[in-house]
């Protein structure tokens, strides 16, 4: 996601590193997750027992705020994937910050296109995630999003949750056969879709 030249400030809402200030990026192609949406999202995930000791993947990570929040709240490992050079650098700074607070290296950063990253992981066949955040940039089309979800499906644990965050005016994603809609929530101009692996 191309960041704006001026970086805004966000924070970790709760957990071990609650209150820690992060650097965020913003611009025409980005939609930073507000604290209100973040609080609602993580409250729901907590009620689903989807934060403690889970393996997290944050795609189109931007500043990495969702992944870093997960680390603060007990995630086992977090991978941030971002293709833009400046945004990936912000991800790296925030990863280093949270890792220092936690005294670990649980948050890592991959500078890569999401499709390339997922295809590489599929070929290796070693990664599997329990919780995936996807906050694609505005220009990403529905067909492209569906293709990414299709690549992601086989790399999920049986109890995984995928959270897709988009504009409230955006249509529901076209889910591949490997995923099915679990819930949908709207917060102002933001809509969240929660999906899980299909039963079949």
TrEMBL record:
Q: What is its EC number?
A: 2.1.1.171
Picking any one GO molecular function of the record gives: 16S rRNA (guanine(966)-N(2))-methyltransferase activity
Which Gene3D superfamilies does this entry report, sorted A to Z?
Answer: Vaccinia Virus protein VP39
Which PROSITE patterns does UniProt cross-reference here?
A: N6_MTASE (PS00092)
The record ties this protein, via InterPro entries, to:
DNA_methylase_N6_adenine_CS, RNA_MeTrfase_RsmD, SAM-dependent_MTases_sf
Keywords, in A-Z order: Methyltransferase, Transferase
Name of this protein: 16S rRNA (Guanine(966)-N(2))-methyltransferase RsmD
Q: Which organism is it from?
A: Arthrobacter cryoconiti
